[in-house]
Amino acid sequence: MNAQKLSKRLETVASFVPTGAVVADIGSDHAYLPCYLVHRGVASRAIAGEVVQGPYESAERQVRTEGLADKITVRLANGLAAVTPQDQVDTVTIAGMGGPLIVSILEKHPESLETVTRLILQPNIHAKVIREWALQHGWALIDEVILEEDEKIYEVLVLQRGEMTLTEQEILLGKFLPARKAPAFVKKWTREYDNWKRVYGAIERAEATLENEAKKQELTQYMTWIEGVLR
C-alpha cells in the first residue's frame, strides 16, 4: 500500500469522500489516505492527524515526498484536537480502530465537528456502538459497506447530519447490510451465530440464575435475527 494504491478498506473509505471536500483523517499513520485523495483531485485540502510521534513523522515525510505540503497539513494531536475551526473541515475519516475508540474520539472534541457534514468511519470491531452514538447525536447513516481483506472483516459507515430511526436489529447488523447479504456479511454473522450457540449451550449447562436467563434471552433474540436475515 502507498499514496497511489490504497488497501481495499481504505479505497472504500476514499470512495465516500465528496469531491472538493476539506478532509481531516484522524489516526492517519503514513498519511496515505489524504495524499491519495489530494492526488486524485477529490480533496481540495486535508489534515493528517496523528497522536503518536513515529507515525506523525512518517506522515510528514510522506507528504513532503509526494510534494503535497501546500495542500496537506500534518498535526501531532490527540484525535479531533488536530482540527481547528479555521480549517473549515467538512469531512472526517477515522479508520482502523475499534468502534468504542472511534466514538471516544468523536465525543472528546465535539467543537471540532461544528463545520463537519460527513463522517466516514471504519471500525475494525463493534460497529454497533457507532450506530448507537449516531442515533444519540443527530447523525444519519447514508450507506454502509462490509468487506474482507487479508482474512479480516471490516465495516465502513457513512454518516451525514440528520435524524434517523434504527431498530435494535439494525443497530446490531446494520441498516443497509442485511438486505445486500455481501459474502463478508454472511461470513461474519454465521461465525457470530455459531459462537452464540456455543455460549448458549454453556449457559444451559450452568447454574440457573437471573443473569444467565437474561443472557439466554438476549442470545435467543440475536440468533433469531440472524436466522431471519440469512435464511
TrEMBL record:
Q: What is this protein called?
A: SAM-dependent methyltransferase
PANTHER family assigned to the protein according to its UniProt record, in alphabetical order: TRNA (ADENINE(22)-N(1))-METHYLTRANSFERASE
State whether keyword Transferase applies: yes
Any one GO molecular function term = tRNA (adenine(22)-N1)-methyltransferase activity
Native source organism of the sequence: Caryophanon tenue
Question: What phylogenetic lineage does the species belong to?
Answer: Bacteria, Bacillati, Bacillota, Bacilli, Bacillales
BP term (GO), one: methylation
Q: Which UniProt keywords apply?
A: Methyltransferase, Transferase
Per the record's keyword annotation, is Glycoprotein included, yes or no? no
**InterPro entries listed in its UniProt record:** SAM-dependent_MTases_sf (IPR029063), TrmK (IPR006901)
State the superkingdom: Bacteria
